[in-house]
Amino acid sequence: MKLHELSPAPDSTREAWRVGRGIGSGNGKTSGKGHKGAKSRSGYSRKRGFEGGQMPLARRLPKRGFNNIFAKPLEIVNLRDFNVFDDGAVVDINTLLEEGILRKPGYGVKVLANGEITKKITIKANAFSESAKQKIEAAGAKAEVV
To answer: What is the pLDDT of residue 146?
Structure first.
């Protein structure tokens, strides 16, 4: 199959409707756009969220809290995910990416305490929850903040 042999599926496309071709066509004079107003003008495009001049919903609803636009969220890894490594292994972001535990490096890794750790490994991460640190040390492994 070549590019010039491609064609759309039957009945999936329509011929363009010709407007402005006389009053008898049903789409003459104003070409189906009605009289006056923004929608009748060329180049008109409605803004996202525009409600005809009424106060838009996004501005009517109360705003609460604070959203830090400079935040650098950490990727989360649970303790149960570290059991795939061998004893004595040093686990960092690159190791987690290679093993498929993380899909993207992001801004770093935080280790949470979900599950148990059974291997004696060294975990290098940007942050640890307090309970994760306790579980790691109780299992004889090491937690190092990078």
So the answer is: 86
